[in-house]
Specification:
Helix content is 71%, strand content 2%. It is mainly alpha-helical. It starts with a helix and ends in a 7-residue tail after the last strand. About 6% of the residues have low confidence.
Length: 386
C-alpha cells in the first residue's frame, strides 16, 4: 500500500511539473511558490513523510482534466488503507474546486460517499447520494451504494424503494439481494402474525427472484401456521429438489407434514430416495428413527452400514446411544465415556459455514454477518457435519 501511495504521489509530482512547464516563459524566470512546493513535495516523498506531501499535493496541484484521476485514485488508496480522514480531505478538496464538469463532480461525490460509508457516517453518505444523484449518469453505482447503506441499517423498505427508483431490479447480480429484502419483511410480518402482508411480500420476493429458496421456506411456514400441512409439504419437497443442500434445515418440518398426513410409508419412501440422491447425516438419522419403530437392531445395522460410507460425529453419537441399551454395565461405562467425547465434538463443531469467507455459526444465516453476502451460508458436510 505504501508503494502505491508513493507511486501516486510521484504521479502527482509529475503533474505539478507538467503544469509548471506549461506556464509562460516569463513567469518561469521569476520565483514561483508552486515551483517551491513542487521540490518540497519531492523531498517529503523521498523522506516518506506522506502527510506533509499530501498537504502540498492538495494545495499545489490544480484540478484539471489531466490529473483528476490522480486525485481520485489517491483518495481511494487512502480509504483502502484505512486512513479515511485523508480520503475525505482529498475528495472534499475536489468538490471545493471550480470548473468541474457534471461527470467529474459526480465522480468526486461518489468517492466521498464511499469515504463516509467507510467511516461509518451513513447519514452523511445517504444525504450526499440522494441530493447529488442528478449529477450522475451511472445510476447503478449510486443506487448500489445506497443499497449497501440501507442494508447495514436493515431498512429493507428504503432499499426496495431505491431499487425501484434506480431500476436496480434489472441488474442480475442484485436480484437475489432485493428478493431477500422482501423476504426479511415477509418474515417480520409472519412473526407479527400478519399473514396477508407476509404473502404479499413473498409475491414481491418471488417476482424479484423466482428461485429464491427462502421464499419457499417462508411459504411453508405460513402454510403450517394455517395448518395446511399438505401445501407446506409440497413447498418443502419442491425446495428439496431445487436446493438439496438445505434439506437438513427443514427436515423436521417436513417430517411433521408427513405425520399429519398419517402416511408413514410415504415419509420412509421419500427418505429412501433422498438418501440415494442427496445423502446427509440428518436424512440418515431420520430414516433410522423410522426403522427404529420396527426394530432397534434394524436401525443400528442401517446406521452402521451408512457410517462406513459416510462417517460423521453425529451419526456415531446416535449409534452409541442405540448400543447403550444392550450393553453390560462395564461396556455401558465405556460407551458413556465415548459418548461424552462425541457429544462434545458435536457441540463444538459449527453446523453452518459461509462459502465466501468461511464464517462458521451454529445457526442458519441467510446473510453472512462477516462478508454480508446472501445465500453463501450452507450446512457443513463431512465428518464433523452432515
Amino acid at each position: 500500500m505504501m508503494d502505491l501511495l508513493l507511486l501516486l504521489f510521484f504521479s502527482a509530482a509529475i503533474g505539478i511539473g507538467w503544469w509548471l512547464g506549461r506556464r509562460h516563459q516569463a513567469q518561469l524566470q521569476t520565483p514561483c511558490v508552486a515551483d517551491e512546493n513542487y521540490y518540497r513535495g519531492l523531498n517529503y516523498l523521498l523522506n516518506h513523510d506522506t502527510d506533509a506531501a499530501l498537504d502540498l499535493f492538495i494545495d499545489s496541484l490544480e484540478v484539471n482534466n489531466h490529473n483528476l484521476d490522480t486525485h481520485l485514485a489517491l483518495g481511494s488508496a487512502f480509504r483502502r488503507k484505512g486512513e479515511v480522514d485523508k480520503a475525505i480531505q482529498i475528495h472534499q478538496n475536489l468538490l471545493n474546486r471550480s470548473g468541474l464538469t457534471h461527470h467529474q463532480l459526480a465522480q468526486a461525490q461518489l468517492e466521498l460517499a464511499h469515504d463516509f460509508v467507510k467511516a461509518g457516517l451513513l447519514d452523511r453518505a445517504e444525504q450526499l447520494l440522494l441530493e447529488s444523484a442528478g449529477f450522475s449518469s451511472d445510476k447503478q453505482a449510486w443506487g448500489t451504494l445506497l443499497l449497501d447503506i440501507y442494508q447495514r441499517e436493515k431498512d429493507w423498505q428504503k432499499a426496495l424503494d431505491i431499487a425501484r427508483r434506480f431500476q436496480l431490479h434489472k441488474v442480475p447480480n442484485l436480484a437475489s439481494r432485493l428478493s431477500h429484502y422482501a423476504c426479511e419483511q415477509a418474515q417480520e410480518a409472519l412473526d407479527d402474525e400478519d399473514l396477508p402482508a407476509a404473502k404479499l411480500l413473498l409475491k414481491q420476493a418471488k417476482g424479484l427472484k423466482t428461485d429464491n429458496p427462502r421464499v419457499f421456506m417462508i411459504d411453508a411456514a405460513i402454510a403450517m401456521q394455517q395448518q395446511d400441512y399438505d401445501l407446506a409439504g409440497k413447498h418443502l419437497r419442491y425446495l428439496a429438489e431445487q436446493e438439496p443442500s438445505l434439506i437438513p434445515n427443514f427436515l423436521t418440518d417436513l417430517a411433521q407434514c408427513f405425520a399429519f398426513a398419517t402416511d408413514q410409508q410415504a415419509w420412509q419412501n421419500w427418505l429412501d430416495t433422498c438418501m440415494q440422491e442427496h445423502p446427509s447425516t440428518s436424512v440418515m438419522l431420520a430414516l433410522a428413527d423410522v426403522l427404529r419403530q420396527e426394530s432397534d437392531t434394524k436401525a443400528a445395522a442401517f446406521v452402521t452400514k451408512e457410517l462406513r460410507k459416510r462417517p460423521s460425529v453425529k451419526g456415531f453419537n446416535y449409534l452409541i446411544d442405540l448400543h447403550m441399551q444392550w450393553a453390560t454395565d462395564n461396556a455401558r461405562e465405556s460407551l458413556e465415556a465415548l459418548q461424552g467425547l462425541t457429544v462434545a465434538l458435536e457441540q463444538r463443531k459449527p453446523a453452518f459455514q459461509c462459502k465466501q469467507c468461511g464464517y462458521a455459526s451454529s445457526s442458519m444465516q441467510w446473510q453472512c454477518p462477516t462478508c454480508h453476502q446472501w445465500d453463501t451460508t450452507k450446512p457443513v458436510y463431512g465428518l464433523r457435519g452432515e
